[in-house]
């Protein structure tokens, strides 16, 4: 995934903020990884991803379910792409920065910058 991001001209930070922001806004092909029903651009996706209240188990091909550690209830689902941000050391470090309570404004700012970079990538009149 990091290699594909580099081919698109994205840094790991930009890729992380784009995926987290799109998930926070409710964008997912399969519906997995959407954990916030308000669909607002904030850092709640990163907070939920890094929560230690759940245990992730495989439930199918590229599908995982989070089980609450105390109650045993299934609380959310995710894809492998979602969970890589918690398991890859480089991506987890980036996700931890954005999950901090006082970094919501930084997250929104960085998402906007990365989104503009992607949207303007094929506009040759800007170069």
How would you describe this protein?
With 127 residues, this protein is an alpha+beta fold. It has a single domain, classed as Peroxidase, domain 2. Helix content is 47%, strand content 14%. It contains 6 helices and 3 strands; from the N terminus they run αααβββααα. A 3-stranded antiparallel β-sheet has the order 1-2-3. Strand 1 and strand 2 form a beta hairpin. Helix 2 packs across helix 6. The protein starts with a helix and ends in an 8-residue tail after the last helix. The model has no long low-confidence stretch (mean pLDDT 91).
- Whole-Å distance between the termini? 27 Å
- Structural class from helices and strands? alpha+beta
- Spatial strand order of the main sheet: 1-2-3
Number of domains: 1
Tally of extended strands?
3
Order of helices and strands: HHHEEEHHH
CATH top level is: Mainly Alpha
CATH H-level homologous superfamily name: Peroxidase, domain 2
CATH topology descriptor: Peroxidase, domain 2
Q: Count the DSSP helices.
A: 6
What are the low-pLDDT stretches, counting only 5+ consecutive residues below 50? none
Work out the helicity level.
40-55%
- Specify the CATH architecture: Orthogonal Bundle
Largest sheet: 3 strands, antiparallel
- Which percent range describes the beta-strand content? 5-15%
- Large-scale geometry: globular
